[in-house]
Amino acid sequence: MNDRERLLRQVAANMDVPIVEQEELAGLDGCYSHAERTIFLKASLSPIEKTGVLAHEVFHALNGDNGPQSMITEFETDARAARFMLDPLTYEKATEKHNRHLGAVSRELGLPIWLNLTYHACLTMDSIGKTEYKRLLVRVLELIDERELTVSGIAETTGIDEGRLKSVLNGEAVFTVAELLCLAAVFKIRVDRLLSARRGGAWAA
User: Fold this and answer.
1) What does the pLDDT look like over 84-105, one tens digit per residue?
2) Is residue 84 packed enough to be buried (19+ CB in 10 Å), middle (13-18) or exposed (0-12)?
3) Which of 16, 59, 61, 105 has the fewest CB atoms within 10 Å of its CB?
4) How many other CB atoms are found less than 10 A from the CB of residue 92?
5) Which helix (H) or strand (E) holds 31?
6) Orientation angle between helical segments 102-109 and 113-127, nearest 10 degrees
7) Residue 78: how many CA atoms within 13 Å on its side-chain side?
C-alpha cells in the first residue's frame, strides 16, 4: 500500500465508510453505495489504478452521491480527486523529469494516467490567458461543427445544463475543468489534445 492509498483509506475511515475489495463488481472498477455507506473496489486492480479509483470513490462519498451519476458529476469528482492527490510542484517535477511521457509520469506519481490528465486540465484552466482561452473556445466550436453535434445533444449526453452550455459557447461564461473533460469525452479525444495550445502541448503516449 502506497502513501496516497493510505491517506485515502484514512479519509474514508474518518467518515466511517468501510472499503471492501471483491473479485466481481458488475463490470466496474469501483463504486460508492450511499445506502450501505461503503466503497467497493475491484480486487484485481493494479496498485496505481486502485489509488485512482479509490480517490474518485472517496469524493463520491464526501459528496454523498447516491446511485449512477451524470457525466459532468463524474468528471467533477475526478477534478476534486486530482486536486486532492496532487500539487503543482510535484506534478511539474515529474512531467519535466520524464519529458511529459504519460506512462512514466504515472509510475513516478503512483497515479493512473486519467487522473494525471485531469490534473493537467486543472492547472491549464487555472492559468489560461484570455487569448489562449479564445483559441480554446474556437477549437471547441470547430469540433462541434465538424462532428455535427447540437448543444441540446451535448447537454443531454453530459448532464451539463443546456442554458449554462449555451452561455459558455457564446463566450458569456468560462468552461470549468469538468465541462472540458465532458467535451473531450464527447469529441473522443484526450483532454490534453483539446488543450494542446497550453503547457507544452499534448503528452507523449
Assistant:
1) 999 999 999 999 999 988 899 9
2) middle
3) 16
4) 12
5) strand 30-33
6) 100
7) 27
H/E stretch holding 33:
strand 30-33
Q: Retrieve residue 166's grid coordinates.
A: 449555451
Residue type at position 111:
L
Q: Where are the alpha helices (DSSP H) in 15-46?
A: none
Q: Quote the cell numbers at residue 154.
A: 451535448
Q: What are the contacts of 151-155 at 24+ separation with CB within 8 A?
A: 154/182, 154/183, 154/186
- The answer to whether the CB of 31 falls within 8 A of the CB of 53 is no
- The sheet carrying 38-42 orders its strands as 19-22, 38-42, 30-33
How many CA atoms lie less than 13 Å away from 96 in the CB half-sphere? 6
204 forms bridges with which residues in the sheet?
101
- 116-137 pLDDT, tens digit per residue, is 999 999 999 999 888 899 999 9
For residue 182, list its beta bridge partners: none
Query: Global pTM?
Result: 0.89
- Please give the grid coordinates belonging to residue 13: 475511515
Closest to 27 measured CA to CA, from 37, 42, 43: 42
Packed helices 113-127 and 47-63: angle between N→C axes, nearest 10 degrees:
60
